[in-house]
Write a structure and sequence with these properties.
Blueprint: H1 5-25, H2 31-48, H3 52-61, H4 65-72, H5 84-108, H6 129-164, H7 172-176, H8 179-208
Helix pairs in contact: 4-5, 5-8, 6-8
GO molecular function: sphingosine-1-phosphate phosphatase activity
Organism: Semnornis frantzii
Protein name: SGPP1 phosphatase
Length: about 210
């Protein structure tokens, strides 16, 4: 969408500040951790921004892109002791793999769920009752579908992982701290959530006329 530059800068600043402060408030990181992460994020943007289109095109068109996206995260863990960072990392990688796979399936099936590049940038339309109602309906339906997906996958992956690795699952919280349970639960569950976000939910919107 085409919007004023100042509006985008203010929005980015507010969101960045909210995320950074929340990490300090929850006690997960120190101020120096947040500063280092912020500077590291800037470095990543500088390096990868020029090749974003190339990476995106690879994920969409390369035949084995879903397998590559799904398997890279599996070999990213070397921490054997429990840590919140380990679960967060598995969750982020799972979401990324799911989104990449969902985008690839959309491309393979020829589903044009996004506007064509020729029509970009889009201009902001006036806010009407119909537009607002559709936005709220899309939000509610999308959140419900994703929450149901998460709950279903959580119910399936934790007992299955416990059974495969012979881990008692009476105390689910304790079982989830084991790497053999936490990593499959986080990675698979949020991978399916990311896939639903990119493929299932948009298809549902298209089917019921909310695209």
């Amino acid at each position: 969408y085409q919007y004023p530059l100042m509006f985008g800068l203010i929005l980015a600043f507010c969101w960045c500040s909210l995320v950074c402060c929340s990490r300090i408030y929850m006690g997960m990181h120190s101020i120096l951790d947040v500063i280092a992460g912020f500077l590291y994020a800037i470095l990543i943007l500088v390096v990868f921004h020029p090749v974003v289109d190339l990476i995106d095109n690879f994920n969409l068109t390369y035949k084995y892109a879903p397998q590559r996206s799904s398997t890279l995260g599996i070999f990213s863990f070397t921490l054997d002791t429990w840590s919140t960072s380990r679960g967060d990392t598995a969750q982020i990688l799972g979401c990324g793999a799911g989104v990449a796979c969902g985008s690839h399936v959309n491309y393979i099936m020829g589903l044009k769920l996004d506007p064509s590049p020729d029509s970009l940038p889009l201009s902001l339309s006036s806010l009407t009752v119909t537009v607002f109602g559709k936005a709220i309906l899309r939000l509610l339906i999308g959140v419900i579908v994703l929450l149901l997906t998460k709950v279903a996958m959580k119910k399936a992956t934790i007992p299955l992982a416990c059974k495969i690795f012979h881990i008692p699952h009476e105390d689910v919280r304790k079982a989830r701290q084991r790497m053999e349970v936490e990593l499959p639960y986080r990675y698979i569950t949020y991978g399916i959530v990311g896939f639903s976000l990119m493929f299932i939910v948009p298809c549902l919107f298209h089917f019921i006329g909310l695209s």
